[in-house]
Q: What sequence folds into this?
């Protein structure tokens, strides 16, 4: 007997309970079986690992060599673990003759992207050098989205991943807001006030992307709670979305502002037109009060907003460089129209096709790092990057995938709205996230720590387009037959 054992007292023995017919008593649960139980829970609900992939994006990775062929982050490692887990579950289900794989349409569309990049890599001037690009595109646009598609089964899985996006956004938004308020951010307009979160000055777009994802996730969760009559939860999610506006503003990312505005508008219009109008009025009034009245963001945000309307007529230096990179990508494609020059080959062909005024790189500093010159290794436009490196073959495959995801997800939201008079908020979150990504691809491409989140968004959209996701109520599980 030890101090942890209860005191022994004399008790009258209770009569034995009659044994239940046809049902055996469950075996006692041992503490040694806890790791096995944890693994079993993970196998039954791999969406928990998908949520971990999202949260690991926030782990700082320090200064990175942008010229390196491959950047491996903790989120990348977790995403490959998700691929392995879902692949093992799918293989086991096939071997046992039960369980479902991805829909045929999804297999064809994702397979088309794989074939397109494989053809471009084989036709490359140096296939061995294009191998890293082939692996990266396969990971981001094929393997991880399919694993996400397999890991999502019901509204709870969907809510878990959207909650992880919101959590990551709140973390990065808090760090970014502190950087702006204390002047410890990245270099911008003569100061160090640009909010970049934990990603550093070499990846100034990353924080704005994470915050935008979280804002759209919070909007969808708020609409879902509102439709379910949970007013307190809806208010909490709405306040979280409002809190993310400030760090998004001080990221000074014009592209993220445009993409977020377009995504919110599309999500609200498909969900509730009257709510969209009220939201537009409220946002305008809040912007006037916060920026004009209280001076939040000051002249920097106002100047950045006004520059959006002048990029066509009198663009600043960063915008003119981007225009020149787009011209360069178009010229490369004209010389290699069918299969492009191969993945990761754009930098090798850039100087031979670029205008003379194109800068050799962009200056970065601040957020704990010294001055550095970042080379321009891509056209900063995903569609033009695919066109120049994979030609018409690759662009056709990507266009088919993106359009199928967009129209499929929108169709599910509209179908739910027609059936109930109001679409579910989770479907609005999916269409909003996909809209943001497609608009973002107009001025950015893959690269950096947050690249794996592109896979998460595509997987969520695939779930919405092909498997009738959170826009529909989950069906009740079929009870197992009782033992005789």
A:
């Amino acid at each position: 007997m030890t101090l942890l054992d209860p005191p022994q007292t004399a008790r009258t023995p209770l009569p034995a309970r009659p044994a239940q017919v046809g049902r055996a008593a469950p075996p006692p649960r041992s503490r040694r079986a806890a790791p096995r139980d944890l693994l079993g829970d993970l196998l039954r609900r791999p969406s928990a690992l998908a949520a971990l992939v999202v949260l690991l994006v926030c782990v700082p990775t320090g200064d990175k060599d942008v010229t390196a062929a491959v950047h491996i982050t903790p989120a990348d490692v977790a995403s490959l673990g998700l691929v392995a887990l879902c692949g093992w579950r799918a293989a086991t289900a096939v071997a046992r003759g039960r369980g479902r794989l991805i829909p045929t349409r999804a297999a064809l569309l994702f397979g088309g992207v794989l074939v397109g990049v494989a053809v471009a890599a084989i036709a490359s001037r140096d296939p061995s050098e294009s191998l890293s690009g082939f692996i990266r595109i396969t990971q981001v646009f094929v393997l991880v989205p399919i694993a996400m598609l397999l890991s999502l089964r019901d509204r709870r899985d969907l809510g878990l991943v959207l909650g992880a996006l919101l959590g990551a956004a709140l973390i990065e938004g808090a760090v970014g807001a502190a950087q702006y308020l204390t002047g410890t951010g990245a270099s911008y307009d003569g100061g160090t006030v640009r909010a970049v979160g934990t990603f550093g000055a070499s990846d100034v777009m990353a924080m704005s992307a994470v915050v935008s994802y979280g804002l759209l996730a919070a909007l969808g969760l708020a609409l879902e709670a509102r439709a379910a009559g949970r007013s307190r939860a809806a208010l909490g999610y709405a306040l979280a979305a409002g809190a993310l506006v400030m760090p998004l503003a001080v990221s000074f990312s014009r592209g993220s502002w445009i993409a977020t505005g377009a995504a919110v508008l599309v999500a609200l219009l498909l969900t509730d037109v009257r709510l969209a109008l009220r939201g537009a009025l409220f946002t305008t009034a809040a912007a006037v009060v916060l920026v004009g009245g209280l001076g939040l963001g000051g002249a920097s945000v106002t100047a950045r907003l006004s520059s959006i309307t002048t990029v066509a007529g009198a663009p600043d230096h960063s915008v003119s460089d981007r225009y020149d990179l787009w011209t360069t990508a178009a010229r490369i494609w004209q010389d290699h129209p069918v299969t492009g020059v191969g993945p990761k080959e754009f930098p090798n062909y850039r100087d031979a096709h670029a205008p003379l005024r194109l800068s050799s790189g962009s200056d970065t500093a601040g957020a704990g790092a010294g001055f550095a010159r970042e080379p321009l290794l891509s056209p900063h436009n995903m569609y033009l990057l695919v066109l120049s490196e994979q030609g018409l073959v690759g662009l056709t495959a990507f266009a088919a995938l993106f359009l199928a995801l967009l129209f499929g997800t929108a169709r599910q939201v509209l179908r739910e709205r027609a059936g109930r008079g109001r679409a579910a908020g989770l479907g609005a979150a999916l269409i909003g996230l996909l809209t943001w990504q497609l608009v973002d691809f107009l001025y950015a491409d893959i690269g950096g720590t947050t690249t794996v989140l592109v896979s998460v968004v595509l997987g969520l959209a695939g779930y919405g387009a092909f498997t009738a996701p959170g826009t529909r109520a989950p069906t009740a599980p079929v009870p197992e037959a009782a033992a005789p």
Summary: The beta strands are 186-188, 191-194, 361-366, 369-375. The radius of gyration is 25 Å. The chain has 17 helices and four strands. Residues 1-12, 19-23, 30-34, 469-484 have pLDDT under 50 and may be disordered.
